[in-house]
Amino acid sequence: MNTDPDFHPLTAAWLDGTATPPEQQLLGEILHTPIMMSDYAALCHTETLLRQHSRPAAQRREALAQLLAAPPWPWRMLRFCRRPAVRWSAAAAVAAALLTWTLWPADSSGPSSVVVKPKPSPRLMPAASPARDLPGDATAVLPPADKSVEPWLRNYYVRPIPLSGELAASVRALAAEIKMSNGQPLAVDPQTNGDAPVYLKTSAALPAWTVLEILALQSGAEAVVSGKQVVFRNAKKPLPLDGRLHEDQPRSVLMAALGNWSAQGFDDEWEAAGFLAKETIGSPLKFWPNGDEIITFNGTSRAVWALGKICRASPRAPQRLQWSANVLKLPHGLFEKALAENCPGRMSTANGLFLSDTEHQMLLRALSMQQGVDLMTLPIPVSDSGTRVKWTSNPEGLERTQDELSAVLEGTIDSSGSLDVIVALKMEKWNESTRGWSTQDLTCQVMIQPGQTIVLGGLVREPGMESVHLISAQIIDTTGPPKPDPPKESAREELPYAIPVVDKPGMVQSPYAPEKGFIDVEGFKRGTRVECPYSGKHFRVP
Amino acid sequence: MASDHARRESFLTHLSGCESTLRAFIAGALAATHERADFFQEVVLILWRRYDDFDAARPFLPWAMGVAVRRMKEEYRRVQRRPGLLPAEQLERLANELTAAEERQPAAAEEAALAECLAALPESSARLVQRRYYERAGIETLSAETGQSTVAIYQTLSRLRRALADCIRRRLRSEDGIQLRAGSPGHLPAAHEH
């Protein structure tokens, strides 16, 4: 029997449409046992049956028939406008219009002559930052905790000072630490002190909004953005003061949230963790291991929820992905042959073809030595889990090359450490006979392990030639700060990485002249800019 | 065309049979009530477009539910951990649970059981259900009518929903031959209970 005291209030709030974001998240987390899900499904079904009960079956069927006939146009229009493709098209149209307006000669009249520029040799363009590439989706680079916040409050992060006591006094002290873009402190209107004191003392750098939410939650209040200020008012449905909850978090995340306790492995480790929790959120919690890497903690609803929120915010461990993408242009059949020779047993399946890291490197090495193979290494920047990153061979869009390739990549790290990857490739090719651009699209969504390579073929470039894309992703930043400083990232010159040589640590192949031989880069740090001894061009050490 | 008409009728027959289960999934998955009808409509249109892919030798609900789950996951991915949407890992569990329940007891049997349970409600509760679900009265209106706070109305409706869900479950078990305890399903709450 389902005995969780929070289950029925949360389910009722969800079904009535009155659940607050914390309640919605909490409900999603407590539906972990089969009996809870069974009860939840039964309540959902009962609610639906009640809503439908007043209408006879024939009337309901007629309503369904009407749905098929003509959905209301505003709804369709809204859905249509929300599509990413439409947004991109609109952005492209605006950019094209601006470009035409800028470049069109003022005195042009009559038919203009078309100047066909000579086909430029293939070259790699600097990769753009995710924020610049995705103007319509700037929130994609924001931490999850701040996505629901209005833009003026999104970007300000604080290292919180110790806050305790009454809610109003604490948020006023905190607000003085949060500077807006005009240099003024955050405007707050604490209309309540809630029903309990607040306490927060953590060295973790949390988004400002997360800190405000935690303080509100502890005191049974809610923080809402009203106009240009944050208003604290009594929550309609505060979490109960005496409710009990438990939650699981990875050890590394919890340690980051609680300040890396030093008693790991000792008998009193869990007592120490409890002490640190009390120091952090002012309420004792009980900890115990749940497997090697997961720790469960238990306590009052508000305390568990507050610590969970800290864990889910900035101290979150490694959530960034380093992409690697190589494009091979080669004669038909050559890739299959190299695959059979270097990766025996690897065959394309209905789910696609995946290579291990070693197989990937062996295949690249073998193919780069073959005649007629053109290898491009794409410098794709890192991305956060669950966000998109785009690469294009023509980022400025000013001079279109004869072949243009763009790729949108998205990888989401799931709880088991696997990667749910979406790859969308688009190749535009100039068709001389039609004097127009032909487009080929290829999209796939697969689950891979970090380091595995997805092999995508099927984009035909010219008769007798094919294009094969090898795309892989690694989880990085396992111990470092959650996000690098964006300006530094974008200011750094984008250079291709060298190709590592399998079984020869410290040796690489030049991305400009892989056929020339190995280069010794032992002792150089990853990312160091070095000069290719064969071509004189610069690349980075992988 | 006659074939188009037949295809449409066949689709509507299938869809009518599982409408409540699909709607229940969407209600359980989406927190915002105003989005549920839109989403249901969208799923219905997808199902209709892909109806040719449906294997008529198999049951309709699992196929339809699969489409709804995939669409819901797309939404989850599109808006980056979309707030107001059940976590992706729970969506499938909810869909499986509802599909399994439907396989055990068709919606028609549940509707019949609900009718019996509603008939057993105390008068004040029956009136509240009537006003809320049949006449679509808002919570504020009900609050003004009954003199109770909106919170109390929400709580009463929640208790009624739980009691009705239990009652439906007991009735259906009873039809399956499971012996009921004496007195069930008579423990349905009155609207004035607190």
Draw up the topology in text.
The complex is a heterodimer of chains A (542) and B (194).
Chain A: H1 7-16, H2 21-30, H3 34-53, H4 57-69, H5 73-82, H6 84-103, H7 130-133, H8 151-154, E1 157-158, E2 163-165, H9 167-175, E3 188-190, E4 198-200, E5 206-207, H10 208-218, E6 221-226, E7 229-234, E8 244-250, H11 251-258, H12 269-281, E9 286-289, E10 294-300, H13 301-312, E11 320-331, H14 334-342, E12 353-355, H15 357-368, E13 374-378, E14 383-384, E15 387-392, E16 403-413, E17 419-431, E18 436-448, E19 453-460, E20 465-476, H16 486-491, E21 499-500, E22 507-509, E23 518-520, E24 529-531, E25 538-540
Parallel strand pairs in A: 3-7
Antiparallel strand pairs in A: 1-5, 2-4, 6-7, 8-10, 9-10, 11-13, 11-14, 11-20, 12-19, 15-16, 16-17, 17-18, 19-20, 21-22, 22-23, 24-25
Chain B: H1 2-29, H2 33-49, H3 60-78, H4 88-104, H5 107-119, H6 123-134, H7 139-146, H8 150-175
Helix pairs in contact in B: 1-2, 1-3, 1-4, 3-4, 5-8, 7-8
Features:
heterodimer; A: 542 residues; alpha+beta; 6-stranded antiparallel beta sheet; 4-stranded antiparallel beta sheet; 32% helix; globular; B: 194 residues; mainly alpha; 8 helices
Report on this model:
The complex is a heterodimer of chains A (542) and B (194). Chain A is an alpha+beta fold and 542 residues long. In chain A, strands 11, 12, 13, 14, 19 and 20 form a 6-stranded antiparallel β-sheet that branches. Chain A has a 4-stranded antiparallel β-sheet with strand order 15-16-17-18, with no helix packed on it. With 194 residues, chain B is mainly alpha-helical. The model of chain B is unreliable at 177-187 (pLDDT under 50). Classes of the chains: A alpha+beta (542), B mainly alpha (194). The interface between A and B is large, with 58 and 59 residues.
